[in-house]
Fold DUF2851 family protein.
Amino acid sequence: MKEDLLHFIWKYKKLQLSNLVTTAGETIFIVDVGTHNHLAGPDFFNSKIEIDGQLWAGNVELHLNSSDWFAHHHERDPNYNNVILHVVWQDDGDVFRSDNTKIPTLQLKDFISSEILQAYQNLFDARHKSFINCEKSVSQIETFLVQNWLDRLFLERLEQKSLLIDQLLKQSKNDWEQVLFILLLKSFGLKINGEAFLELGKTLNFSVVRKLRSNTQTMEAVLLGMSHLLDDPSVFDDYYLQIQKEYRYQKRKFGLDNEAIPKPGFFKLRPPNFPTIRLSQLANVYGSHENLFSKLMNSQDLDTIYTFFDLGASLYWNDHFTFGKSSKKSSKKLSKKFIDLLIINSILPLKFSYSNYKGKNAGDEILRIISNIKEEKNSIISNFGKHGLEIDNAKESQALIQLYNEYCTKNKCLQCAIGASLLQA
């Protein structure tokens, strides 16, 4: 038994509503369960409860045992003086407010059906799952409910990603162009080098980027040099020596300091994702487009966004993946799949935050764009598919990632529309 079940039962009135009485025998009629509070303070605000014919308006607190009231020191906290009803699974003693007045108690275990308890037990029975708690039942949930929940989860994921954007905005004094640059760097780094590239973006003064971005080779030299990728004394490649010299000049000119930036890795990466290639590609993006932030924010369709990234790395990288070592000639253009990741992880979250900042609603535009992007492929999406949740676009794959990371793995099933529906019977 966990407290979240008590919250669920109270919130959705999944208890015997007739003949409710307190542990002292007072009749109870629930007029309004109140507003669920997920922050500090009582669990439900602004409840309305009729107790022995008297209507009370105030807050409701829930615990597994009555004695938890004292374990949490609520008797000393004036925020709990407006609690009008203590709802518990088991009443093991009277509780009092800070003014020593007694609080009526409802013992839930006397008014809960065995069906609800069995459904709850089945949902959390670890013996019957290999992936998520509801894997045996998720395919039976009504499609309309699932789709509405996925829409909400996608927006929740955008809001979660906006937290980093808010942080970067504060650090950059509301420089949206700089925030775009940092987000793109993080996305270009993918999982392996995302944090190293993020640190690069935060450390490199964006005024330098503004001055150098029209010169792609210089921009590339600075990005590679700041990332410690021009520090190898054993390389005598002409291009390497040329941009190494350029970086040393720019380092002196602008007082660049890369001590705090981790060196990106190559291990476990496919050659097209090597940091050398990705940084060169990003330098070319900025060398090809002025006012990139404005252009992206004003783009209302997917095809237009694709055009800004329809380019590759510098010519040197056509037959190299690392310095000084030739490879089979191949195009280093950004793939459509990679651009999709940039759109999902950087551009759309920034559109979301920027539209909110401007007091506008870009929700429909964002949903339209991401609904036209193909779904992502990973183990989470694959496992949901095996258990009956088939999806066909990136909005839904992003929503499932949010569902798995923030609800399934944390056993927050009763805060999930799917899990809650399984206990509605």
